[in-house]
Design a protein that fits this description.
disordered N terminus, Rossmann fold, 365 residues, six-stranded parallel beta sheet, 16% strand, seven-stranded parallel beta sheet, 43% helix, alpha/beta, globular
């Protein structure tokens, strides 16, 4: 499905899709396309660091954003914020001739109640939906109640993108830089390096995550510490970017640390996720679209939560999914003997296509 695009406008509210938009914008500009970018306060720096000259949306409402990009041929929003829905509707009123895409960046058909409910509204307001996972062009995505979203076939476009090259680079850097990054991290936090295994935990940012998933992870850790010497481990919390706004997870962690955290070394990271991945002996996660990156970078991966989050790693049996101390300890024991994950299996599961660049240019022909 090709469209004539004199100027393509990206509207980025959230960090995950903003990373994708950076890559798309660079590729489009390299091939002579005109690109404009409107960025939230959360995403502005990502584009700025890539030299893409974003325009801040911090003091703009949805109608003002729509007015500013109404002369573009194509406007693409992400799907994770109700502001995206407002922009889509405002554009439909002030510039009905503009082709409006909603970009569904997550490789999963269902993410969380909050995300999927919001995404459903944004997708309904758009002309078309561009799916990063090419499989979702044909496979139904689910709303907040896990009911298939009614999206006509002509509205769905599959791209086949995932930051595979970034994950592979992290894997290469990890082999070369792990010792150095580890040394700097231990020095920064004034921790004596006694050969501890570094377990990096990363999760989501929604009510269910804070009420159930993160507390379950902490429960599993404290229960496991009753059966294993956890002085051999350093646990690093890598917060979701939006979780840093209210720090609900830190409040939960502080209470847990007072009640049950004795003897367990825990650090709240202020480093970039890419950097902590390079020093990690294992990644532990729940509800994050980054999980395929962990596997693609060659890092042993464990999912811990109150319930199985059936993402591509779990469905393809590429990582352990645990809910109690016994299962977690067994997963830890398997870390040293972890087999290398097949990148082909991961790429197939996330709907990645090596020719995504060519497909991007065809879509915005």
């Amino acid at each position: 499905m090709a469209i004539a695009a004199a100027s393509i406008c990206f509207i980025a509210c959230h960090g995950g899709p903003a990373d994708h938009f950076c890559t798309f914008a660079q590729e489009l500009k390299k091939n002579g396309r005109q690109v404009e970018i409107y960025a939230s306060a959360l995403t502005f720096q990502k584009f700025w660091e890539k030299g893409l000259n974003p325009i801040s949306m911090q003091d703009l409402n949805a109608k003002e954003v729509a007015e500013k990009c109404k002369n573009c041929s194509v406007v693409i929003t992400d799907v994770g914020d109700l502001f995206d829905e407002q922009v889509q509707k405002a554009l439909a009123e002030c510039a009905p001739g503009v082709t409006r895409y909603a970009y569904y960046d997550n490789p999963e058909d269902f993410v969380t109640v909050e995300y999927s409910a919001t995404a459903t509204k944004v997708m309904a307001a758009a002309n078309r939906v561009l799916f990063a996972n090419v499989h979702l062009e044909k496979v139904p995505v689910l709303d907040g109640d896990k009911v298939p979203v009614d999206l006509p076939e002509e509205k769905r476009v599959g791209l086949g993108y995932y930051p595979v090259e970034n994950a592979q680079k992290i894997g290469r850097d990890r082999l070369e830089q792990k010792g150095e990054i580890r040394k700097e991290f231990f020095s920064k936090w004034e921790i004596e390096d006694q050969g501890q295994k570094i377990l990096v935990y990363t999760g989501g940012c929604n009510d269910v995550y804070f009420a159930e998933a993160f507390p379950k992870f902490l429960e599993v850790i404290s229960d496991s510490a009753g059966h294993k010497d956890f002085s051999k481990y350093l646990i690093v919390l890598q917060q979701h970017p939006r979780a840093k706004v209210d720090n609900r997870d830190l409040e939960i962690l502080q209470k847990w640390n007072t009640d049950r955290g004795a003897g367990i070394s825990f650090v709240v990271s202020d480093s970039a996720t890419n950097e902590v991945m390079k020093m990690a002996d294992a990644m532990i996660y729940y509800q994050t679209s980054m999980s395929p990156q962990f596997a693609l970078a060659g890092i042993a991966t464990i999912q811990v939560g109150h319930d199985d989050f059936k993402d591509c790693l779990v469905k393809s049996k590429l990582c352990s999914a645990v809910k109690n101390a016994g299962e977690f300890l067994a997963a830890l024991d398997r870390l040293d003997g972890s087999d290398e994950v097949s990148s082909e299996v991961v790429e197939k599961g996330i709907g990645y296509l090596p020719d995504w660049k060519e497909r991007l240019l065809v879509i915005f022909k």
